[in-house]
């Protein structure tokens, strides 16, 4: 029955593809322009632009340009993993072409190509039930007959992962059982195979396990056989009941509803992680091979829904070391810009013996191909990959070939990132090279003298050179500090931090501090160098002490550069100290009042008169609510920001459509001017706010952002704004807490207890 149902499904090609038979020549010119623009973009990126390539596939399918679509799909499949939707679209198109072919040699050749495509799809996404079901339908309907063993191997592969799907796995077991029932083998052998498949099916935790049991035991009269099926069903039922809560949680978190205020994009991943942890615990306790396959099936299902989580790929590869290389290869196609996966793949290849020590030219070519096929974003990350490649390829070998190899690899790195060179502050590649060179000073001169334009102007590079020789050769270490000191006015930091720390004076101070620490602990004596360092540090301290007060122009410039914080609202500070100023005015003499008033007027003389606005008598929070009634309903609170993020970069990150409706406010320390790593982002509508919250966990400048709706603390009557009621839920603030002063009027204190009771 299953075979006939699947045959009817495959006999109607219109159900497979949504494409109709409209005239292919009638193509919109706008659509063609979009196709050409996307093709140019893909070609310019050498096929590494995933987004442009994915859009190109959609546009080519809309334009019905079959040959160009096929070429683009093949090129995309070489670089990246196709999604489930992309694979189904490709398979639909190819099966439709197959059923339009007349029977004969051409159809058989077409069937072979379609079967190869199905094999690639199931190897890429082994947990995709729709792809496996389509493959099952194709295998039933094709004209060429496979051998019995080939068919059995097909069902075994499908039952390893896809048949363990909680919702739809029963279809594969029924098809497998129907196949065994249709064979013309020896009766006892046939019966044993049917019983084996039926028992495995009933022991699998499936949602439709009860229906599956009824179909299996229908027509079975042997009591022993019924008893074995009942025992298998009881095992499967217990497993199903144990996993039902996990499956319900996965189904609940799988569909991301943007209209739900409390939606969490990471909830589905957490649900899978807890499910996997439970399966691992059962596997260790029961030592069941089938449970090990269940763990693998869960990993594949989790990666089908979360294909860009690098740590999940690495965890999966570590868990199943026998398939580690294949898993990491798929992971790199899903996350091509992840240097962690690339390094893990290099180390795994070395452990399995795939990487062997060969000559310099072959190794250099292999490294060049590695960089060419990867999508690494920076020179620093590529250095880490180069170091992992060297450790795997060359081990601890020391020879002249090593020096030639490192020189060639460094040239490839520089050529790969000509305009995006940001050095590694730890200089790991230089240290690795120096440890394997007969004369380490030659290596450091290669980096800091011969490649001065790349490394010579960075403080960290000179410090790493000097520290390398501090214990082994103090003379060379002191000479390295001398060389860095001679370039002190040209040095900058490779590791960017606060803007105020990048001044020449502070860079020189850090260099001299490290130099003085070396001189004080070194066994050798360098009196002239010590006097030079001591004199320079005294000069720096004197310069800092004699710095004049910053002018208004300097303050504006420093605010633009982020060296000091800009006050968000001058009136806020006035409001905080208004009461204190009024009390001071009452107790001051007339001369002091006039002097203070003159000083205030002089300090504000540069501000135009039109900028002064009378302060409202209402509390500050009420004024803000009147001016911005939807402020809290349309504001996102963003945490874990990189400290160098600017408001413009944050706006660009959230304003994808470039509508200019997003505003960002990065919160900075009022004393240092450094970002606190948090920000408020205002949106035009609540819908846009919810769409932004859905991006929680996305990375910006290498840090995963935490995005949530802004929830200001509640305010109570007489609480003094944000000060009162903090951390007390809905309880009113205490008079002695941070919100109130906790004073008791003197008149009340002096009244006797009886008078207080009358009050």
Question: How would you explain this protein's 3D organization?
Answer:
With 759 residues, the protein is mainly alpha-helical. 61% of the residues lie in helices and 4% in strands. The chain has 35 helices and six strands. The strands form two sheets. A four-stranded antiparallel sheet has the order 2-3-1-6. It has a two-stranded antiparallel ribbon with strand order 4-5. Helix 5 runs antiparallel to helix 6. The chain is elongated. It starts with a helix and ends with a helix.
Taking strands numbered 1, 2, ... along the chain, how are they ordered across the largest sheet?
2-3-1-6
Number of strands: 6
- Write down the Rg: 36 Å
**Inertia-based shape:** elongated
Sheet of most strands: 4 strands, antiparallel
β-strand percent reads under 5%
The helix content is 55-70%
Low-confidence stretches are: 1-24, 257-261, 565-616, 716-759
Decide which structural class fits the backbone. Answer: mainly alpha
Mean pLDDT equals 76
Oligomer: single chain
What is the first-to-last residue Cα distance?
A: 91 Å
* Structure annotation, total helices: 35
At a glance:
The protein is 61% helix and 4% strand. By secondary structure, the chain is mostly helical.
Write the layout of secondary structure elements.
Blueprint: H1 2-10, H2 29-44, H3 50-63, H4 66-79, H5 84-100, H6 105-124, H7 129-141, H8 148-160, H9 170-181, H10 187-202, H11 209-217, H12 223-254, H13 267-286, H14 289-305, H15 310-319, H16 324-334, H17 339-351, H18 360-373, H19 379-393, H20 400-416, H21 428-435, H22 440-450, H23 452-456, H24 459-469, H25 474-486, H26 504-521, H27 527-545, H28 552-561, H29 570-587, H30 590-603, H31 620-627, E1 635-639, H32 647-654, E2 663-668, E3 675-682, H33 686-693, E4 699-700, E5 703-704, E6 706-709, H34 746-750, H35 753-758
Antiparallel strand pairs: 1-3, 1-6, 2-3, 4-5
């Amino acid at each position: 029955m299953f075979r006939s149902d699947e045959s009817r499904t495959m006999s109607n090609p219109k159900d497979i593809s949504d494409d109709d038979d409209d005239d292919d020549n009638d193509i919109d010119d706008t659509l063609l322009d979009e196709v050409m623009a996307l093709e140019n973009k893909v070609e310019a990126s050498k096929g590494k632009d995933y987004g442009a390539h994915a859009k190109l596939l959609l546009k080519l399918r809309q334009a019905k340009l079959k040959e160009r679509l096929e070429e683009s799909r093949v090129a995309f499949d070489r670089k990246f993993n196709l999604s489930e939707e992309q694979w189904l679209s490709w398979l639909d198109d190819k099966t439709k072409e197959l059923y339009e072919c007349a029977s004969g040699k051409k159809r058989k050749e077409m069937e072979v190509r379609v079967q190869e495509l199905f094999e690639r799809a199931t190897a890429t996404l082994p947990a995709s039930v729709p792809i496996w079901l389509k493959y099952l339908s194709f295998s039933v309907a094709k004209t060429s007959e496979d051998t019995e063993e080939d068919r059995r191997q097909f069902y075994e592969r499908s039952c390893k992962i896809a048949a363990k799907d909680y919702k739809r796995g029963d279809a594969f077991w029924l098809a497998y059982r129907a196949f065994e029932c249709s064979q013309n083998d020896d009766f006892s052998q046939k019966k044993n195979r049917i019983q084996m498949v039926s028992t495995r099916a009933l022991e699998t935790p499936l949602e439709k396990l009860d229906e599956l049991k009824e179909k299996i035991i229908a027509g079975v009269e042997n009591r022993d056989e019924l008893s074995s099926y009942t025992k298998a069903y009881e095992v499967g039922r217990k497993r199903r009941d144990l996993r039902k809560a996990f499956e319900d949680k996965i189904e609940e978190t799988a569909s991301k509803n943007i209209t739900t205020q409390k939606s969490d994009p990471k909830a589905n991943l957490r649900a899978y992680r807890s499910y996997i942890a439970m399966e691992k615990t059962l596997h260790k306790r029961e030592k069941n091979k089938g449970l090990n396959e269940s763990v693998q099936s869960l990993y594949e299902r989790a990666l089908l829904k979360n294909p860009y989580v690098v740590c999940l790929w690495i965890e999966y590869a570590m868990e199943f070391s026998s398939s580690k290389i294949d898993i990491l290869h798929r992971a790199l196609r899903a996350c091509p810009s992840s240097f962690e996966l690339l390094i893990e793949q290099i180390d795994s290849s070395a452990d399995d013996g795939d990487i062997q020590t060969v000559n310099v030219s072959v190794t250099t070519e292999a490294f060049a191909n590695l960089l060419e096929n990867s999508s690494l974003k920076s020179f620093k990350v590529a250095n880490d990959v180069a170091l992992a490649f060297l450790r795997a390829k060359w081990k601890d070998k020391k020879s002249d070939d090593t020096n030639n190899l490192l020189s060639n690899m460094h040239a490839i790195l520089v050529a790969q990132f000509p305009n995006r060179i940001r050095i590694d502050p730890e200089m790991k590649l230089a240290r690795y090279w120096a440890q394997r060179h007969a004369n380490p000073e030659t290596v450091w001169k290669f980096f800091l003298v011969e490649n001065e334009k790349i490394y010579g102007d960075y403080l960290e590079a000179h410090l790493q050179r000097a520290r390398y020789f501090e214990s082994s050769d103090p003379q060379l270490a002191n000479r390295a500090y001398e060389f860095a000191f001679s370039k002190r006015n040209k040095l900058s930091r490779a590791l960017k931090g606060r803007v105020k720390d990048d001044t020449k004076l502070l860079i020189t101070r850090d260099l001299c501090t490290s130099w003085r620490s070396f001189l004080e602990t070194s066994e050798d004596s360098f009196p002239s160098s010590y006097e030079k360092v001591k004199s320079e540090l005294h000069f720096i301290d004197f310069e800092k002490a004699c710095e004049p007060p910053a002018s208004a122009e300097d303050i504006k410039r420093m605010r633009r550069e982020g060296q000091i914080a800009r006050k968000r609202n001058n009136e806020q500070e006035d409001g905080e100290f208004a009461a204190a100023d009024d009390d001071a005015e009452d107790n001051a003499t007339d001369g002091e009042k006039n002097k203070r008033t003159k000083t205030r007027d002089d300090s504000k003389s540069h501000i135009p008169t039109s900028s002064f606005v009378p302060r409202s008598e209402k509390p500050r929070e009420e004024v803000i609510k009147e001016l911005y009634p939807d402020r809290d309903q349309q504001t996102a609170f963003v945490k874990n920001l990189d400290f160098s993020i600017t408001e413009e970069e944050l706006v660009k990150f959230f304003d994808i459509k470039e509508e200019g409706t997003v505003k960002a406010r990065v919160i900075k320390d009022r004393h240092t001017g450094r970002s606190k790593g948090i920000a408020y982002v205002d949106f035009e509508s609540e819908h846009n706010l919810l769409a932004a919250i859905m991006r929680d966990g996305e990375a910006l400048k290498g840090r995963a952002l935490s995005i949530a709706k802004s929830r200001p603390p509640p305010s109570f009557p007489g609480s003094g704004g944000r000060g009162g009621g903090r951390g007390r839920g809905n309880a009113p603030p205490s008079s002695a807490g941070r919100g109130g002063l906790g004073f008791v009027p003197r008149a009340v204190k002096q009244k006797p207890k009886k008078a207080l009771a009358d009050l």
